[in-house]
Design brief:
Elements: H1 12-19, E1 22-24, E2 38-40, H2 47-59, H3 63-76, H4 80-94
Parallel strand pairs: 1-2
């Protein structure tokens, strides 16, 4: 979406945005060369991709699909602290409100 309009912008907002590190979630890009300080999250099956998707689904009120994505993320998370964070997010979605 931004790849066509962003390169070459030099206003104050763009300058600040270009200075901030950014992670790009994409099914079609391998690199984010068009944007300063940007990196594409690895593969659509990355635990980070599933965690980001779960958060978006949760915010949209879609608890069950969010839980499914969190289960996938939890299975793939490489470190204990990441697994514990994802488990807490999953537990929060599972608790009755």
């Amino acid at each position: 979406m931004f790849t066509r309009i962003w390169p070459g912008r030099e206003d104050d907002f763009s300058t600040k945005m270009n200075a901030i590190p950014k992670l790009v979630v994409s099914r079609s890009l391998d690199q984010a060369d068009a944007w300063s300080n940007s990196a594409v999250l690895p593969g659509p099956r990355s635990y980070l991709w599933h965690a980001a998707r779960a958060d978006a689904l949760r915010r949209l009120g879609q608890a069950e699909p969010a839980r499914q994505e969190l289960h996938l993320a939890l299975e793939q998370a490489p470190t204990g602290p990441e697994r514990r964070l994802l488990a807490r997010r999953l537990a929060a979605l599972t608790e009755p409100r």
